[in-house]
Design a protein that fits this description.
- The chain is an all-alpha fold and 426 residues long.
- It folds into two domains: 323 residues, no CATH class; 74 residues, no CATH class.
- The chain is 67% helix and 0% strand.
- The protein has 25 helices and no strands.
- Helix 8 packs parallel to helix 10.
- It is globular.
Length: 426
Amino acid sequence: MIPVLAGALLLAWPALLNAYPLVFSDTHAFLVQGGEPQMVWDKPFIYGPLLTLLHLRLTLWLPLAAQCLLVSHLLWLTRAAFAPPSARFHLALCAALAALSAAPWFTSLLMPDILAPAAVLALHLLGFAPLSRRLRLWLLLLATIAIATHLSYLPLALALTLLALLLRAHRSILIPLPAALALLLATNAIGHGKWAISPYGSVFALARLATDGPAQAVLARECPRPDWKLCAWQGRFPTDSDDFLWKDWAPVWSTGGPIALAPEASAIVRATIQQEPVAVLKTAIANTAHQLTRVALGDTLGNDWLEGSITGSLRAYFPAAEMDRFRAGLQMNERLRPWATPLNPLHLAALLAGGAATAWLAWRRNTLAAMVLLALLANAAAAGALSRPHDRYQARIAWLVLVPPLVTVGSRAAADSAMQSRRWWR
Protein backbone atom coordinates (compact mmCIF):
# COMPACT_ATOMS: atom_id res chain seq x y z
CA MET A 1 0.00 0.00 0.00
CA ILE A 2 1.27 3.45 -0.90
CA PRO A 3 0.43 5.03 2.52
CA VAL A 4 2.40 2.31 4.33
CA LEU A 5 5.36 2.83 2.01
CA ALA A 6 5.21 6.61 2.49
CA GLY A 7 5.01 6.17 6.26
CA ALA A 8 8.05 3.89 6.11
CA LEU A 9 10.03 6.58 4.29
CA LEU A 10 9.14 9.10 6.99
CA LEU A 11 10.32 6.67 9.67
CA ALA A 12 13.60 6.10 7.82
CA TRP A 13 14.76 9.72 7.89
CA PRO A 14 17.71 9.20 10.32
CA ALA A 15 19.13 6.50 8.01
CA LEU A 16 18.58 8.75 5.00
CA LEU A 17 20.28 11.60 6.83
CA ASN A 18 23.16 9.32 7.77
CA ALA A 19 23.31 8.00 4.17
CA TYR A 20 23.48 4.50 5.64
CA PRO A 21 21.48 2.37 8.11
CA LEU A 22 22.42 3.00 11.73
CA VAL A 23 24.47 0.22 13.29
CA PHE A 24 25.89 -0.70 16.67
CA SER A 25 28.85 -2.88 17.57
CA ASP A 26 26.41 -5.70 18.40
CA THR A 27 25.12 -5.54 14.82
CA HIS A 28 28.39 -7.26 13.91
CA ALA A 29 27.47 -10.27 16.09
CA PHE A 30 24.10 -10.57 14.38
CA LEU A 31 25.72 -10.40 10.96
CA VAL A 32 28.14 -13.15 11.98
CA GLN A 33 25.26 -15.28 13.28
CA GLY A 34 23.71 -15.52 9.86
CA GLY A 35 26.83 -15.05 7.77
CA GLU A 36 28.90 -17.99 9.02
CA PRO A 37 26.44 -19.18 10.46
CA GLN A 38 27.64 -19.10 14.06
CA MET A 39 26.05 -19.19 17.49
CA VAL A 40 26.91 -16.27 19.78
CA TRP A 41 26.87 -17.02 23.49
CA ASP A 42 24.87 -13.97 24.61
CA LYS A 43 22.35 -13.57 21.76
CA PRO A 44 19.40 -15.68 20.59
CA PHE A 45 19.90 -17.14 17.14
CA ILE A 46 16.94 -15.22 15.69
CA TYR A 47 17.69 -11.66 14.55
CA GLY A 48 20.98 -12.56 12.88
CA PRO A 49 19.51 -15.14 10.48
CA LEU A 50 16.68 -12.70 9.71
CA LEU A 51 19.25 -10.06 8.73
CA THR A 52 20.92 -12.54 6.40
CA LEU A 53 17.63 -13.50 4.77
CA LEU A 54 16.89 -9.84 4.16
CA HIS A 55 20.25 -8.37 3.14
CA LEU A 56 21.03 -11.16 0.62
CA ARG A 57 24.71 -10.23 0.95
CA LEU A 58 23.94 -7.18 -1.15
CA THR A 59 23.30 -4.25 1.19
CA LEU A 60 22.03 -3.46 4.68
CA TRP A 61 19.51 -1.06 3.17
CA LEU A 62 17.25 -4.07 2.51
CA PRO A 63 16.69 -5.04 6.19
CA LEU A 64 16.43 -1.34 7.03
CA ALA A 65 13.59 -1.04 4.51
CA ALA A 66 11.92 -4.11 6.00
CA GLN A 67 12.02 -2.67 9.53
CA CYS A 68 10.53 0.65 8.44
CA LEU A 69 7.78 -1.07 6.46
CA LEU A 70 7.03 -3.34 9.40
CA VAL A 71 6.53 -0.47 11.84
CA SER A 72 4.53 1.56 9.34
CA HIS A 73 2.25 -1.41 8.68
CA LEU A 74 1.72 -2.04 12.40
CA LEU A 75 0.78 1.59 12.90
CA TRP A 76 -1.67 1.34 9.98
CA LEU A 77 -3.28 -1.73 11.55
CA THR A 78 -3.36 -0.13 15.00
CA ARG A 79 -5.20 2.90 13.67
CA ALA A 80 -7.57 0.62 11.74
CA ALA A 81 -8.52 -1.04 15.03
CA PHE A 82 -10.02 2.28 16.19
CA ALA A 83 -11.29 3.94 13.02
CA PRO A 84 -11.51 3.38 9.26
CA PRO A 85 -8.05 3.49 7.62
CA SER A 86 -7.07 6.84 6.17
CA ALA A 87 -3.99 7.50 4.04
CA ARG A 88 -3.88 11.14 5.15
CA PHE A 89 -4.14 10.26 8.81
CA HIS A 90 -1.50 7.53 8.52
CA LEU A 91 0.98 9.96 7.00
CA ALA A 92 0.21 12.48 9.74
CA LEU A 93 0.71 9.80 12.39
CA CYS A 94 4.06 8.66 10.97
CA ALA A 95 5.17 12.28 10.51
CA ALA A 96 4.32 13.09 14.12
CA LEU A 97 6.28 10.08 15.39
CA ALA A 98 9.17 10.90 13.06
CA ALA A 99 9.36 14.49 14.32
CA LEU A 100 8.51 14.09 18.01
CA SER A 101 9.90 10.73 19.09
CA ALA A 102 12.76 8.26 18.97
CA ALA A 103 10.73 5.90 16.77
CA PRO A 104 12.59 6.68 13.51
CA TRP A 105 15.97 6.35 15.21
CA PHE A 106 15.15 2.77 16.18
CA THR A 107 13.49 1.79 12.90
CA SER A 108 16.75 3.00 11.32
CA LEU A 109 18.95 0.98 13.70
CA LEU A 110 19.82 -2.58 12.69
CA MET A 111 19.31 -4.12 16.10
CA PRO A 112 16.41 -6.09 17.65
CA ASP A 113 15.43 -2.94 19.59
CA ILE A 114 12.60 -1.99 17.24
CA LEU A 115 11.02 -5.41 17.76
CA ALA A 116 10.12 -4.57 21.37
CA PRO A 117 7.51 -1.95 20.39
CA ALA A 118 6.57 -4.13 17.41
CA ALA A 119 5.77 -6.97 19.80
CA VAL A 120 3.61 -4.67 21.94
CA LEU A 121 1.57 -3.48 18.95
CA ALA A 122 1.28 -6.98 17.52
CA LEU A 123 0.08 -8.44 20.83
CA HIS A 124 -2.52 -5.71 21.22
CA LEU A 125 -3.80 -6.32 17.70
CA LEU A 126 -3.99 -10.07 18.33
CA GLY A 127 -5.88 -9.50 21.54
CA PHE A 128 -8.34 -6.78 20.63
CA ALA A 129 -8.52 -5.98 16.91
CA PRO A 130 -10.92 -7.56 14.42
CA LEU A 131 -8.56 -9.41 12.10
CA SER A 132 -8.83 -11.57 9.03
CA ARG A 133 -7.38 -15.05 9.31
CA ARG A 134 -4.42 -14.08 7.12
CA LEU A 135 -3.61 -11.01 9.24
CA ARG A 136 -3.93 -12.99 12.46
CA LEU A 137 -1.49 -15.62 11.20
CA TRP A 138 0.97 -12.90 10.13
CA LEU A 139 0.77 -11.18 13.52
CA LEU A 140 1.18 -14.48 15.35
CA LEU A 141 4.38 -15.14 13.39
CA LEU A 142 5.61 -11.58 13.87
CA ALA A 143 4.93 -11.52 17.61
CA THR A 144 6.61 -14.90 18.11
CA ILE A 145 9.78 -13.89 16.28
CA ALA A 146 9.88 -10.42 17.87
CA ILE A 147 9.61 -11.84 21.40
CA ALA A 148 12.33 -14.41 20.70
CA THR A 149 14.89 -11.88 19.43
CA HIS A 150 15.88 -10.64 22.89
CA LEU A 151 15.68 -12.32 26.27
CA SER A 152 14.34 -9.19 27.96
CA TYR A 153 11.28 -9.40 25.71
CA LEU A 154 10.15 -12.62 27.40
CA PRO A 155 9.06 -11.00 30.69
CA LEU A 156 7.65 -8.11 28.68
CA ALA A 157 5.49 -10.51 26.67
CA LEU A 158 4.46 -12.41 29.80
CA ALA A 159 3.24 -9.23 31.50
CA LEU A 160 1.28 -8.13 28.42
CA THR A 161 -0.25 -11.56 27.91
CA LEU A 162 -1.47 -11.71 31.51
CA LEU A 163 -2.94 -8.22 31.28
CA ALA A 164 -4.65 -9.02 27.99
CA LEU A 165 -6.21 -12.12 29.51
CA LEU A 166 -7.58 -10.01 32.37
CA LEU A 167 -9.08 -7.75 29.72
CA ARG A 168 -10.68 -10.76 28.00
CA ALA A 169 -8.55 -10.69 24.90
CA HIS A 170 -8.84 -13.06 21.96
CA ARG A 171 -7.38 -16.45 22.87
CA SER A 172 -4.78 -16.26 20.09
CA ILE A 173 -2.74 -13.95 22.31
CA LEU A 174 -1.76 -17.06 24.29
CA ILE A 175 0.28 -18.42 21.36
CA PRO A 176 3.28 -16.09 20.76
CA LEU A 177 5.07 -16.39 24.12
CA PRO A 178 5.08 -20.21 24.29
CA ALA A 179 6.00 -20.33 20.60
CA ALA A 180 8.92 -17.95 21.23
CA LEU A 181 10.10 -20.09 24.14
CA ALA A 182 9.91 -23.20 21.96
CA LEU A 183 11.90 -21.42 19.25
CA LEU A 184 14.61 -20.46 21.73
CA LEU A 185 14.74 -23.99 23.15
CA ALA A 186 15.09 -25.49 19.69
CA THR A 187 17.78 -23.11 18.43
CA ASN A 188 19.84 -23.48 21.61
CA ALA A 189 19.50 -27.27 21.52
CA ILE A 190 20.75 -27.34 17.93
CA GLY A 191 23.41 -24.64 18.23
CA HIS A 192 24.66 -24.99 21.81
CA GLY A 193 23.61 -28.58 22.54
CA LYS A 194 21.55 -27.36 25.50
CA TRP A 195 17.78 -27.44 25.94
CA ALA A 196 17.68 -24.03 27.59
CA ILE A 197 16.07 -20.65 27.03
CA SER A 198 19.38 -18.92 27.70
CA PRO A 199 22.27 -21.34 28.26
CA TYR A 200 24.63 -18.65 29.57
CA GLY A 201 22.27 -15.91 30.71
CA SER A 202 23.24 -16.43 34.34
CA VAL A 203 26.46 -14.53 33.61
CA PHE A 204 24.43 -11.36 32.95
CA ALA A 205 22.44 -11.85 36.16
CA LEU A 206 25.67 -12.37 38.11
CA ALA A 207 27.19 -9.17 36.69
CA ARG A 208 24.16 -7.20 37.87
CA LEU A 209 24.01 -8.82 41.34
CA ALA A 210 27.76 -8.57 41.89
CA THR A 211 28.13 -4.91 40.96
CA ASP A 212 24.98 -3.97 42.91
CA GLY A 213 26.27 -5.76 46.01
CA PRO A 214 24.00 -8.71 46.95
CA ALA A 215 26.22 -11.34 45.34
CA GLN A 216 29.27 -9.91 47.10
CA ALA A 217 27.57 -10.47 50.44
CA VAL A 218 27.06 -14.13 49.52
CA LEU A 219 30.67 -14.51 48.44
CA ALA A 220 31.82 -12.98 51.72
CA ARG A 221 29.93 -15.72 53.60
CA GLU A 222 30.69 -18.66 51.30
CA CYS A 223 34.32 -18.08 50.36
CA PRO A 224 36.87 -19.50 50.21
CA ARG A 225 35.47 -22.31 48.07
CA PRO A 226 37.58 -24.31 45.63
CA ASP A 227 34.70 -24.56 43.13
CA TRP A 228 34.10 -20.79 42.96
CA LYS A 229 36.75 -18.91 41.00
CA LEU A 230 35.14 -15.59 41.87
CA CYS A 231 36.19 -15.95 45.50
CA ALA A 232 39.53 -14.55 44.34
CA TRP A 233 37.73 -11.34 43.34
CA GLN A 234 36.39 -10.48 46.78
CA GLY A 235 36.85 -6.80 47.54
CA ARG A 236 37.87 -5.81 44.03
CA PHE A 237 34.80 -6.30 41.85
CA PRO A 238 34.17 -3.64 39.18
CA THR A 239 31.41 -1.20 40.04
CA ASP A 240 30.13 -1.21 36.45
CA SER A 241 28.38 -4.35 35.18
CA ASP A 242 29.51 -3.58 31.62
CA ASP A 243 33.12 -3.69 32.81
CA PHE A 244 32.35 -6.94 34.69
CA LEU A 245 31.06 -8.51 31.48
CA TRP A 246 33.29 -7.19 28.74
CA LYS A 247 36.69 -5.99 29.99
CA ASP A 248 39.45 -8.54 29.50
CA TRP A 249 40.86 -7.82 32.99
CA ALA A 250 37.48 -8.27 34.71
CA PRO A 251 35.96 -11.43 36.30
CA VAL A 252 34.24 -12.96 33.26
CA TRP A 253 37.10 -13.05 30.77
CA SER A 254 39.92 -13.45 33.27
CA THR A 255 38.33 -16.66 34.59
CA GLY A 256 37.93 -18.43 31.26
CA GLY A 257 35.07 -16.58 29.58
CA PRO A 258 31.29 -16.61 29.93
CA ILE A 259 30.71 -20.18 28.78
CA ALA A 260 33.21 -21.53 31.30
CA LEU A 261 31.88 -19.27 34.06
CA ALA A 262 28.16 -19.98 33.45
CA PRO A 263 27.79 -23.00 35.84
CA GLU A 264 29.44 -21.07 38.68
CA ALA A 265 27.39 -17.99 37.83
CA SER A 266 24.18 -20.02 38.05
CA ALA A 267 25.15 -21.33 41.48
CA ILE A 268 26.04 -17.87 42.81
CA VAL A 269 22.89 -16.27 41.40
CA ARG A 270 20.75 -19.01 42.93
CA ALA A 271 22.48 -18.63 46.32
CA THR A 272 22.12 -14.83 46.16
CA ILE A 273 18.37 -14.99 45.52
CA GLN A 274 17.96 -17.49 48.36
CA GLN A 275 20.16 -15.71 50.91
CA GLU A 276 19.62 -12.04 49.98
CA PRO A 277 16.03 -11.80 48.65
CA VAL A 278 15.35 -8.37 50.16
CA ALA A 279 18.57 -6.86 48.83
CA VAL A 280 17.93 -8.36 45.39
CA LEU A 281 14.41 -6.92 45.36
CA LYS A 282 15.59 -3.47 46.50
CA THR A 283 18.26 -3.23 43.82
CA ALA A 284 15.82 -4.48 41.17
CA ILE A 285 13.32 -1.78 42.10
CA ALA A 286 16.00 0.91 42.12
CA ASN A 287 17.32 -0.17 38.73
CA THR A 288 13.81 -0.32 37.29
CA ALA A 289 13.08 3.22 38.49
CA HIS A 290 16.39 4.42 37.07
CA GLN A 291 15.74 2.72 33.73
CA LEU A 292 12.31 4.37 33.43
CA THR A 293 14.01 7.78 33.29
CA ARG A 294 16.62 6.84 30.66
CA VAL A 295 14.96 7.85 27.39
CA ALA A 296 17.53 10.02 25.61
CA LEU A 297 19.00 9.47 22.16
CA GLY A 298 22.74 9.22 21.72
CA ASP A 299 24.29 6.04 23.10
CA THR A 300 24.24 4.18 19.75
CA LEU A 301 24.92 7.07 17.38
CA GLY A 302 28.70 7.31 17.45
CA ASN A 303 31.36 5.11 15.85
CA ASP A 304 32.32 3.41 19.14
CA TRP A 305 33.79 -0.06 18.47
CA LEU A 306 32.54 -0.06 14.87
CA GLU A 307 36.04 -0.23 13.40
CA GLY A 308 37.00 -3.89 13.48
CA SER A 309 33.48 -5.12 14.23
CA ILE A 310 31.08 -3.83 11.59
CA THR A 311 33.92 -3.32 9.15
CA GLY A 312 34.90 -6.97 9.50
CA SER A 313 31.36 -8.11 8.70
CA LEU A 314 31.01 -5.78 5.75
CA ARG A 315 34.33 -6.97 4.36
CA ALA A 316 33.36 -10.63 4.78
CA TYR A 317 29.79 -10.66 3.53
CA PHE A 318 29.19 -7.70 1.19
CA PRO A 319 30.52 -6.16 -2.03
CA ALA A 320 33.28 -3.58 -1.61
CA ALA A 321 30.87 -0.74 -2.37
CA GLU A 322 29.00 -1.45 0.88
CA MET A 323 32.08 -0.60 2.92
CA ASP A 324 32.44 2.66 1.02
CA ARG A 325 28.82 3.58 1.78
CA PHE A 326 29.27 2.76 5.46
CA ARG A 327 32.47 4.77 5.83
CA ALA A 328 30.91 7.79 4.14
CA GLY A 329 28.01 7.91 6.62
CA LEU A 330 27.66 10.58 9.31
CA GLN A 331 27.76 7.97 12.08
CA MET A 332 31.17 6.61 11.17
CA ASN A 333 32.51 10.16 10.95
CA GLU A 334 31.07 11.18 14.37
CA ARG A 335 28.71 13.68 12.77
CA LEU A 336 25.36 12.02 13.53
CA ARG A 337 25.08 12.54 17.28
CA PRO A 338 25.00 16.37 16.94
CA TRP A 339 21.83 15.98 14.88
CA ALA A 340 20.14 13.83 17.54
CA THR A 341 21.13 15.46 20.83
CA PRO A 342 19.18 18.71 20.29
CA LEU A 343 16.03 16.62 19.76
CA ASN A 344 16.07 15.17 23.28
CA PRO A 345 14.24 18.09 25.00
CA LEU A 346 11.52 17.99 22.34
CA HIS A 347 11.19 14.23 22.66
CA LEU A 348 11.01 14.47 26.44
CA ALA A 349 8.24 17.07 26.29
CA ALA A 350 6.31 14.87 23.84
CA LEU A 351 6.81 11.82 26.07
CA LEU A 352 5.48 13.66 29.12
CA ALA A 353 2.43 14.91 27.23
CA GLY A 354 1.88 11.54 25.56
CA GLY A 355 2.32 9.72 28.84
CA ALA A 356 -0.30 11.88 30.52
CA ALA A 357 -2.74 11.36 27.64
CA THR A 358 -2.08 7.62 27.58
CA ALA A 359 -2.63 7.39 31.33
CA TRP A 360 -5.98 9.19 30.90
CA LEU A 361 -6.97 6.80 28.11
CA ALA A 362 -5.98 3.83 30.27
CA TRP A 363 -8.16 5.21 33.07
CA ARG A 364 -10.94 5.37 30.47
CA ARG A 365 -10.29 1.67 29.89
CA ASN A 366 -8.57 1.91 26.54
CA THR A 367 -6.78 -1.42 26.13
CA LEU A 368 -3.97 -0.11 23.93
CA ALA A 369 -3.12 2.57 26.49
CA ALA A 370 -3.16 0.05 29.33
CA MET A 371 -0.85 -2.33 27.47
CA VAL A 372 1.55 0.45 26.50
CA LEU A 373 1.90 1.65 30.10
CA LEU A 374 2.51 -1.88 31.33
CA ALA A 375 5.00 -2.42 28.51
CA LEU A 376 7.06 0.58 29.65
CA LEU A 377 7.17 -0.72 33.21
CA ALA A 378 7.90 -4.32 32.23
CA ASN A 379 10.63 -3.23 29.82
CA ALA A 380 12.29 -1.11 32.51
CA ALA A 381 12.14 -3.99 34.96
CA ALA A 382 13.53 -6.54 32.49
CA ALA A 383 16.26 -4.28 31.11
CA GLY A 384 17.15 -2.30 34.22
CA ALA A 385 16.91 -5.03 36.83
CA LEU A 386 18.64 -7.71 34.75
CA SER A 387 21.23 -5.47 33.12
CA ARG A 388 22.71 -2.05 33.62
CA PRO A 389 20.29 0.80 32.79
CA HIS A 390 21.03 2.37 29.41
CA ASP A 391 19.24 5.08 27.46
CA ARG A 392 18.74 2.77 24.49
CA TYR A 393 16.82 0.17 26.49
CA GLN A 394 13.96 2.51 27.41
CA ALA A 395 14.09 4.94 24.50
CA ARG A 396 13.40 2.05 22.11
CA ILE A 397 9.93 1.57 23.58
CA ALA A 398 9.03 4.82 25.40
CA TRP A 399 7.80 6.44 22.17
CA LEU A 400 4.81 4.10 22.25
CA VAL A 401 3.10 6.44 24.75
CA LEU A 402 2.43 8.76 21.81
CA VAL A 403 0.54 6.10 19.87
CA PRO A 404 -2.71 5.70 21.88
CA PRO A 405 -3.57 9.44 21.88
CA LEU A 406 -2.46 9.86 18.26
CA VAL A 407 -4.45 6.93 16.87
CA THR A 408 -7.62 8.06 18.65
CA VAL A 409 -7.38 11.78 17.93
CA GLY A 410 -9.44 13.57 15.31
CA SER A 411 -12.29 11.09 15.04
CA ARG A 412 -15.04 9.45 16.98
CA ALA A 413 -12.60 6.62 17.71
CA ALA A 414 -11.74 7.93 21.18
CA ALA A 415 -15.32 7.61 22.36
CA ASP A 416 -15.88 4.41 20.40
CA SER A 417 -12.74 2.78 21.78
CA ALA A 418 -13.74 3.68 25.33
CA MET A 419 -17.14 2.04 24.79
CA GLN A 420 -15.53 -0.98 23.16
CA SER A 421 -13.00 -1.28 25.97
CA ARG A 422 -15.75 -1.25 28.59
CA ARG A 423 -17.25 -4.28 26.90
CA TRP A 424 -13.85 -6.02 26.91
CA TRP A 425 -13.28 -5.23 30.58
CA ARG A 426 -16.56 -6.71 31.83
